[in-house]
Design a protein that fits this description.
Structural class: alpha+beta
Distance between the termini: 13 Å
Radius of gyration: 22 Å
Low-confidence stretches: none
Order of helices and strands: EHEEEEEHEHEHEEEEHEEEEHEEHH
Strand order of the largest sheet: 16-15-14-17-18
Number of helices: 8
Helix content: 25-40%
Largest sheet: 5 strands, antiparallel
Shape: globular
Number of strands: 18
Oligomer: single chain
Strand content: 25-35%
C-alpha cells in the first residue's frame, strides 16, 4: 500500500492518484485537514484511523510520499472548554506536547519505508541552502538581510537595484474576498522613499539582469528542466509567478550543462532531498544563478509543457522502486 501525505487542495496529488488507481495498486491519502486518531502504537508499529472510516496499518505500507501537509493527530481530550481553570489548561497544553512526540515517532517509522519527501523537509532554511549551494560551486546573487532605510541606501549605492522576497515561505491568504500573496519585488531609489527608517529584517539580493528563468524539478537524482521566457512580458520580468493565463510566457524543455546539473545533484544530496522544485535565473552572459529550492513546490508547470511524465515516474517509484 502506498501512503500519501498531502492536503486537500493539491492538484499534483490528484494526478499521481489517477496513475496509481490505473494500476490497481492500493493506496491511502491522508490530508492535513483529515481527522487522524491513534488506534495502536508501539516502537515497531502503529495503526491510524482516518476520518472514523479508513484504517492504516504500518505493516501494510510499502512506500510513502510526503507530498505536502502533515499527519495531524486528533484527540477528543484536547478540545478546549471556555470555562476551564488555569490548571486544566496547563495539563491540556502538556498533553499537546505529548501528542507531538507520537506524531514525530510515526514519521520516524515511516522514514524506514521507501519514500519520497520528508516531513521535516517541508520547509528548509533558505540561508542554509544558499550557503550549501556555494559549497557545491553554484553561483548565487549577493544576499543581505537589512532592517533600516540607511542599510538599504547602501545596498542601492552598491548595486543600483535589489530585490526583496520572503525569507521563509510565501504568504498567501484571503481577506475581504480578495486574495493576497507575496512576490519578489524590486527596490530602487524611487521606491526607497516609501520605506520607514526601520522595519522588520528583510531578505534582499542583488538584482540579476536575467534573460530567462529556469525551473528544475529534481526527482531521485534526475533533473527535469524547463526554461521560462519571462522577460517577454512586463508583468513577469521580476517574478514569473505573476502569470498571464491568456497570454502566458513561453515554456520549453531546457538542457542544463553538466557542471550545473552535477552541482544541483550534489546540493540536493547534501541537504538530503529526493525531490524539490529549484529556481535558477540566467543572465545575458550565460551565468546561472541558483535562487532557492522548494521541497514541496508545484511541478505541474514543468510536467505538462515539457511532457516529462513526472506523475508516471513518481507512481512507478512508489510502486516498483
Amino acid at each position: 500500500m502506498v501512503l500519501i501525505i498531502s492536503e486537500n487542495s493539491d492538484i499534483s496529488t490528484n494526478h499521481v492518484i489517477e496513475w496509481i488507481t490505473s494500476t490497481g495498486y492500493p493506496f491511502v491519502r491522508i490530508n492535513w485537514e483529515d481527522k487522524v486518531e491513534i488506534k495502536s502504537f508501539n516502537l515497531d508499529s502503529f495503526s491510524l484511523l482516518i476520518n472514523d472510516k479508513v484504517l492504516v496499518e504500518y505493516e501494510k505500507i510499502t512506500s510513502v510520499w510526503f507530498r505536502r501537509g502533515k499527519i495531524k493527530l486528533h484527540a477528543s481530550y484536547l478540545n478546549t472548554k471556555s470555562d476551564e481553570d488555569k490548571f486544566t489548561n496547563y495539563l491540556r497544553e502538556h498533553l499537546k506536547v505529548e501528542l507531538k512526540a507520537y506524531e514525530e515517532y510515526i514519521y520516524h517509522l515511516l522514514h524506514k519505508k521507501k519514500h519520497i519527501g520528508s516531513f521535516d523537509k517541508l520547509h528548509i532554511n533558505k540561508f542554509v541552502v544558499l550557503d550549501k549551494a556555494v559549497e557545491c560551486g553554484l553561483n548565487i546573487p549577493p544576499t543581505y538581510v537589512v532592517s533600516s532605510k540607511q542599510e538599504l541606501e547602501k545596498l542601492l549605492s552598491k548595486h543600483g537595484e535589489v530585490i526583496t522576497k520572503s525569507s521563509n515561505y510565501v504568504l498567501n491568504f484571503e481577506y475581504t474576498s480578495d486574495n493576497y500573496m507575496t512576490y519578489t519585488e524590486v527596490i530602487n531609489q524611487e521606491s526607497l522613499d516609501l520605506f520607514p527608517d526601520t522595519f522588520a529584517p528583510s531578505l534582499c539580493q542583488m538584482m540579476i539582469k536575467k534573460v530567462y528563468d529556469v525551473r528544475v524539478f529534481f526527482l531521485n537524482h534526475e533533473c527535469y528542466s524547463m526554461v521560462i521566457f519571462s522577460q517577454n512580458r512586463e508583468e513577469s520580468k521580476v517574478d514569473f509567478r505573476k502569470y498571464d493565463y491568456i497570454n502566458p510566457s513561453r515554456r520549453v524543455p531546457y538542457k542544463l550543462n553538466k557542471e550545473i546539473k552535477s552541482a544541483l545533484i550534489e546540493l540536493m544530496n547534501l541537504i538530503n532531498l529526493k525531490s524539490g522544485s529549484i529556481d535558477i535565473v540566467v543572465d545575458e552572459n550565460g551565468n546561472h544563478y541558483f535562487l532557492e529550492v522548494n521541497p514541496v513546490g508545484q511541478y505541474g508547470m514543468v510536467e505538462f509543457p515539457c511532457n516529462y511524465k513526472l506523475n508516471e515516474k513518481i507512481t512507478k517509484y512508489l510502486i516498483d522502486g
